[in-house]
């Protein structure tokens, strides 16, 4: 039996729009296991990104629980959870602009307290595996393409060596070829390195390449 | 964290330079404020030390002037200080040493006084003091004739602490001064002009004469054990007679002076040398509470009024430095705070990324503090070199602005000098001159001390802390989602 990494247990989330309450998630429950890739698809405003934000501990559900390996992430502590247990790849890459690719990766390792003999070499190795040369890894990231920046964001997520990787529209700004390369990377991470990869995407093509496809209907996570 | 801070500083070079320049300005102004503040405190200490830690016990002439009836003779009213009274004070706390003084007026058949007229002729090349010119010199002749005594005897317990000698206004040229061992001896110390005019040397003797209350002649033979030279005399201009001429002043032991004054229980004044100038007020308080001396009739004078007036401009400067320092700290913190708030707003996205990676908010704030701290350390280092120049400029401006107050203070001496001559000793006038020369002649010493450097470090640290923590409150309130959503928006 495969190990459950992340569970949504009766998760509710809403926000106020003036005097009106907008419900995003309502009693959403689902279990994500190791070694599989998940795609959450749906229309804009359906709650895809909110699901990812809650899964990543960037916000707290209004009710219900988000469990990491059976433990409520609020009890773990969201900062600690984000530091040690989860990696998030954002649509807009969210790289630190005053650092180069290698420094961005090392910075994530430092925050997570990853201990490797040579952090520089380790970071360059991950970046190289994602197709970035040493010269590109040391170049000002603002001079790199969107695809390269997205690969740096993925490298940063990989460098933390956690079981759960969350991605928000990772191929949204990328061309077909680069997108395919990135999809392949996620699949490999799940299948070869036994990670749980959850991807939020509006691309049905991308979603179809992943193991499980989910959608949000009436605030609930459901299999497509 | 430190690595990230250095990377951030390198990348945002413009912002780093702006903060560096601002911090340099703040640090230089803080140094200027601190240096002036410490320099004024130092100067006040110097003034205090130049006046010495001595307190003189004497008859309260101010009270006498207010209370006496018209036409009443001074001798009828003035009550002498007794040795018993003076002894009560010498054993109080804070007293390191003491000196009793007895003054007497004498004449001599063996020696001639250094005459004021001869002195006037030799001391100036101008004709203003010549007898044949009339005017002042004629009046001077009349004054000399009014007094029968040509010499002034000043008997002391010891000459070791006399301010004229300690300040090197009077310099011993031969022999020695009188000590406590000479208290009942017939030894004396005379001025070099008196000695040379009368061909006297150490070891020579001469007699002095006075009359007691019953008009009996009292003759005492004195032996010279020391000769001193007056470098400058502050009381030259106030001489009414030969005996008021400092050249005709003869220092003896207390016993001889008491014999000549006709009383072995009375003294003219007593001076107490305290262990610290700061204890003057405590000593006065103790004297009032623990002795039976009537301090309406007698007074303990530490020259405080002169001290207060001479340091008033320094106190003004110290107050200015304190206000200046406060303004610099508040304004510096506010400007730095505003700049950091503006720059932090552009860094929200970066904070959001760090938070999403699991960095704690405290560490994010600490990184800001490290960044500002690194700039502050560099600015601090540079300011140690440039601060002295700024201090000199600011102190120069302040000295110019306060110099007018010095002119007002210089009107004080005539009163003090008059009071001192009343007491029969010339020390107070000299002390006043020292007090006045200490703060006014020398410019403020604004050199940086270790204390100033430590204070600068503390103030710089405080400014950095305040200017980072205030904008950080905003960061600490935000959730990573809010920050990242703002970016996405």
Structural account:
The complex is a heterodimer of chains A (224) and B (489). By secondary structure, chain A is of the alpha/beta class. In chain A, 37% of the residues lie in helices and 29% in strands. Chain A has 9 helices and 10 strands. Chain A is globular. Chain B folds into 2 domains: 2-50 and 310-488, no CATH class; 80-296, no CATH class. Chain B is elongated, with a radius of gyration of 34 Å. Helix content of chain B is 57%, strand content 15%. In chain B, the strands form 2 sheets. In chain B, strands 1, 3, 4, 5, 6, 7, 8, 9, 11 and 12 form a 10-stranded mixed sheet that branches. Chain B has a two-stranded antiparallel sheet with strand order 2-10. By secondary structure, chain B is of the alpha+beta class.
Tally the helices of chain B. 18
Percent of residues of chain B in helical segments?
55-70%
Order of the strands making up the biggest sheet of chain A = 6-7-8-3-9-10
Order of helices and strands of chain A: EEEHEEHHEHHHHEHEHEE
Principal-axis shape of chain A equals globular
Order of helices and strands of chain B: HHEHHEHEHHEHEEHEEEHEEHEHHHHHHH
Instruction: State the distance separating the first and last CA atoms of chain A.
Output: 22 Å
The percent range for strand residues of chain B is 15-25%
Which stretches of chain B of 5+ consecutive residues score pLDDT under 50?
123-146, 404-442
Radius of gyration of chain A: 17 Å
Largest interface: A-B, 27 and 25 residues
Largest sheet of chain A: 6 strands, mixed
Count of individual helical segments of chain A: 9
Kindly name the structural category of chain B: alpha+beta
The total tally of domains of chain B equals: 2
Radius of gyration of chain B: 34 Å
Low-confidence stretches of chain A: none
Q: Tell me the total number of β-strands of chain A.
A: 10
């Amino acid at each position: 039996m495969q190990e459950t990494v992340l569970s949504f247990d009766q998760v509710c989330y809403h926000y106020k729009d003036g005097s009106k309450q907008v419900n995003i998630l309502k009693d959403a429950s689902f279990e994500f296991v190791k070694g599989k890739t998940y795609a959450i698809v749906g229309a804009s405003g359906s709650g895809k990104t909110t699901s990812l934000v809650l899964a990543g501990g960037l916000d707290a559900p209004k009710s219900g629980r988000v469990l990491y390996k059976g433990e409520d992430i609020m009890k773990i502590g969201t900062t600690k959870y984000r530091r040690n247990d989860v990696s998030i790849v954002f649509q807009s890459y969210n790289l630190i602009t005053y650092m180069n690719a290698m420094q961005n990766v090392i910075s994530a390792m430092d925050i997570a307290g990853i201990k490797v003999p040579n952090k520089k070499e380790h970071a360059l190795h991950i970046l190289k595996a994602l197709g970035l040369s040493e010269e590109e890894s040391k170049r000002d990231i603002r001079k790199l393409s969107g695809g390269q920046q997205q690969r740096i964001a993925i490298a940063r997520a990989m460098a933390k060596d956690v079981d759960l990787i969350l991605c928000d529209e990772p191929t949204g700004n990328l061309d077909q070829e680069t997108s395919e390369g990135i999809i392949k990377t996620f699949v490999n991470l799940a299948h070869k390195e036994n990670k749980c990869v959850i991807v939020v995407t509006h691309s049905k093509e991308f979603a179809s390449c992943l193991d499980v496809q989910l959608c949000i209907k009436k605030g609930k996570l459901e299999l497509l | 964290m430190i690595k990230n801070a250095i990377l951030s500083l390198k990348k945002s070079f413009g912002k780093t330079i702006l903060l560096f320049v601002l911090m340099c300005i703040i640090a230089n102004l803080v140094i200027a404020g601190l240096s002036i503040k410490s320099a004024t405190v130092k100067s006040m200490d110097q003034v205090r030390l130049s006046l010495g830690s001595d307190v003189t016990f004497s008859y309260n002439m101010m009270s006498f002037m207010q209370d006496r009836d018209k036409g009443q003779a001074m001798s009828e009213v003035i009550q002498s200080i007794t040795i018993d009274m003076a002894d009560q004070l010498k054993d109080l706390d804070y007293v390191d040493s003491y000196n009793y003084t007895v003054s007497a007026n004498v004449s001599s058949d063996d020696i001639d006084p250094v005459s004021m007229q001869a002195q006037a002729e030799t001391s100036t090349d101008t004709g203003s003091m010549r007898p044949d010119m009339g005017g002042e010199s004629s009046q001077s002749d009349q004054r000399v004739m009014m007094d029968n005594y040509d010499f002034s005897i000043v008997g002391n317990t010891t000459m070791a602490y006399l301010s004229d000698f300690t300040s090197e206004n009077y310099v011993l040229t031969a022999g020695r001064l009188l000590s406590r061992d000479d208290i009942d001896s017939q030894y004396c110390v005379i001025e070099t002009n008196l000695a040379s005019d009368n061909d006297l040397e150490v070891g020579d003797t001469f007699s002095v004469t006075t009359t007691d209350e019953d008009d009996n002649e009292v003759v005492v033979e004195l032996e010279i054990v020391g000769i001193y030279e007056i470098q400058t005399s502050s009381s030259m201009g106030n001489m009414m007679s030969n005996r008021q001429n400092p050249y005709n002043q003869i220092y003896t032991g207390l016993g001889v002076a008491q014999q000549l004054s006709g009383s072995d229980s009375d003294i003219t004044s007593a001076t107490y040398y305290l262990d610290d100038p700061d204890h003057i007020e405590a000593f006065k308080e103790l004297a009032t509470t623990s002795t039976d001396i009537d301090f309406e009739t007698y007074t303990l004078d530490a020259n405080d009024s002169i001290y207060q007036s001479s340091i008033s401009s320094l106190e003004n400067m110290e107050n200015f430095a304190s206000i200046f320092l406060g303004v610099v700290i508040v304004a510096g913190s506010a400007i730095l705070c505003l700049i950091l708030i503006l720059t932090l707003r552009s860094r929200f996205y970066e904070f959001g990324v760090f938070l999403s990676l699991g960095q704690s908010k405290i560490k994010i704030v600490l990184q800001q503090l490290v960044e500002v701290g690194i700039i502050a350390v560099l600015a601090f280092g540079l300011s140690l070199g440039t601060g002295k120049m700024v201090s000199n400029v600011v102190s120069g401006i302040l000295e110019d602005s306060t110099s007018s107050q010095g002119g007002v203070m210089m009107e004080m001496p005539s009163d003090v000098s008059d009071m001192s001559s009343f007491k029969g000793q010339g020390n107070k006038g000299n002390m006043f001159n020292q007090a006045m020369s200490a703060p006014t002649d020398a410019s403020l010493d604004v050199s940086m001390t270790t204390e100033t450097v430590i204070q600068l470090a503390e103030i710089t640290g405080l400014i950095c802390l305040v200017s980072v923590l205030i904008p950080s409150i905003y960061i600490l309130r935000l959730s990573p989602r809010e920050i990242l959503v703002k970016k996405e928006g």
